[in-house]
Amino acid sequence: MDVIRQHFNGVTGIVERLHALFDTWECGHSFFAGVEPDTIQLLRLAVHEWVANLVQHADFSGEEALITLEITPISGRLRCAIEDNSCGFPFRERIEYQRRTLTPFPERGMGLLLLNAATDIVEYAATGKGSNRLVFTVSSTADSCLDIPFS
Amino acid sequence: MNFPIEQAGQNAVVIRVGASLDFRNASDFKAIVQQQVDTGIRRFILDFSETNVLDSTGLGSIFSLHRNLSSSNGHVMFAAASRPVQVVVQLTRTYKVFRQFSSVEAAVQSLE
């Protein structure tokens, strides 16, 4: 089974590096053959939102951030795992908090909700090896949405 | 990061969003559109033809502009949305709020 595995050291410029990699993978890389274009975009969005969350909010306890991205195509879906050496946070509670406090036309506080909406199954847990791991799948056939209040 | 602006008729501008509107440059976008609002601009056409990344913070900055305009009958339009932007629009159902145009020209024509 083909797997893309990419390591990132440090968060400086990580978003730029990430999207440069996606641009490369999308342009002629056989890895995404047979995957719907919108599925690839959902993956890109979910990874971006997670990495943005790490850049803006994660506590790496003064250590260099070590982040590993792993992407696996599975029958037209894409499975993604992102492992990092941050201190972690209560993922499900934070999503529920964002959902409860979402106001009409919100300016902030949508990132985890958007990631959750873009993905089919998402799990986050400590690995027991001093790191935390987010795992999710995406598929453009899922037809989920983020219910933002517009009034 | 800058966002090139072109006049598009009375009280209207086209803003070229460029490669990304996200947490890295959303505050710049907010400052630029606020300058336009302060000069009386009430209609904003956002050109997404070159946009690879529109994230939750970028979308939030557009919501902020919308809230700013809603009391003065202004509005925001999306033009030439790239596939990444279309995915975000569909996922968030923001087509219910922001009119979508296939091109900047079509959005400008709608102003007439």
Characterise this structure.
Helices cover 34% and strands 23% of the residues of chain A. By secondary structure, chain A is an alpha+beta fold. Chain A has a single domain, classed as Heat Shock Protein 90 (2-Layer Sandwich), CATH 3.30.565. In chain A, β4 and β5 form a beta hairpin. In chain A, α1 packs antiparallel against α2 and α2 runs antiparallel to α4. By secondary structure, chain B is of the alpha/beta class. Chain B has one domain: STAS domain (Transcription Regulator spoIIAA, 2-Layer Sandwich), CATH 3.30.750.24. In chain B, a hairpin with a 4-residue loop joins β1 and β2. In chain B, α1 runs parallel beside α2. Chains A and B meet through α1, α2 and α4 of A and α2 and α3 of B.
Strand and helix map with partners:
The complex is a heterodimer of chains A (151) and B (112).
Chain A: E1 4-9, H1 14-26, H2 37-57, E2 66-74, E3 77-84, H3 91-100, H4 111-118, E4 122-126, E5 132-138
Antiparallel strand pairs in A: 1-2, 2-3, 3-5, 4-5
Helix pairs in contact in A: 1-2, 2-4
Chain B: E1 5-7, E2 12-16, E3 20-21, H1 26-38, E4 43-47, E5 53-54, H2 56-70, E6 75-79, H3 83-92, E7 99-101, H4 104-109
Parallel strand pairs in B: 2-4, 3-5, 4-6, 6-7
Antiparallel strand pairs in B: 1-2
